[in-house]
Amino acid sequence: MKDFKRFIVLFVILCIFWILFAGKEFNELILGFVASLIITILFYKKAFIFGEFNLNPKAIAYFVFYIFILLIEIIKSNIAVAKLVIQPTLPINPGIVKVKTKLKSRLGRIILANSITLTPGTLTIETKDDEFYIHWIDVTSENIDEATNSIVQNFEKYLEVIFG
Amino acid sequence: MLMLIGSLITLIGSIFLFLGALGILRMPDVYNRMQAGTKATTLGTILFLAGLALGYSHCTCWPRILTLILFIVFTNPISSHALARAAHHIGINLTEKSVTDKLAEDEAENGEKL
User: pTM for this structure?
Assistant: First the structure.
């Protein structure tokens, strides 16, 4: 079952990239599908990380929703950092805090750490098992739980459904 | 009309890029500079490319622009994480304004680099 999941996910990703790059003519599509199939058959055993997706409809809906949440977060925090930069006094309050995540899957942790880094104002410096060390440009709390609440929680509740 | 909207979005994107550059100049230490320099530019680049895709919609380049945005979103956090991790690993200090450094504390406690 896990192998089948890897197979499907890798194949779909390769096909999407082919369509994005190479246009939509019938002959090209056939070539792309055949090439994707060959690559998938050769390499799906190595792509263990794709086996961690949940492939039920709820998880896929949450994944689409998650992209929008991430976009809104990026816009909000970009404006916040831009405001910091243009103020003459430069009112930053930086520091490295520690947060904990509940996610078990490796791919889930990778996506969580990258989402944290992608939103300006927070930058993942080191990960160690379920603990992330995060450089935060405006530290509001040094406590683990409160920092987790304000940085991680927003993304985690969606990723928990997607990766289980 | 579409051209106008595309140009406006591109303009907003370039304002964010400018603020990112300003951030690099003004921030006090390497980590804060990285915050401004590598990431205030994420939205800038995304808006810039989205504006191009809108304004030049007569050419069929939007799939490639979408791919570009995708790759920026994938690679940007990884590179800034690698830079910040390396900087902390060789012991570059945080600015004096900093409130806390839990990573250095934990490293000192365990007596080893994580």
Answer: 0.80
